[in-house]
Amino acid sequence: MRKVQSRFGTGPLQQTLTVGDLHFLADSEVGRGGTGTGPSPHEYLAAALASCTSMTLKMYAERKAWKLENAIVTVDIERPHDVETFIRDIQLVGDLDIEQRERLLDIATKCPIHKALSGEIQIKTQLVS
Hints:
2 domains; three-stranded antiparallel beta sheet; 3 helices; elongated
């Protein structure tokens, strides 16, 4: 995996992100002190779960030669009572029977980001010079 680096951007909260040769922005919404020039960190977290889920479903369906035309995954994050709650809606497009649909729903829980978010997480932080 390539490392992700964040640096101050322009504006009060904007960050410039670099992953290898890719460059993109993160920011906060205007109502939260940012300028809205990029997704928020929580939106990137939701995007990670949505994209990983869709990729996992696509790879599995292709391996099984199932007729999955698309997996549209929508993720929202709520925070009731200081608990991050991910609401993931999955729309499966294609000629799939009920057993295939149920298996794909089960496979969604096997995506690496789902496993990371629902498992034990450790964050090791250090100052570097």
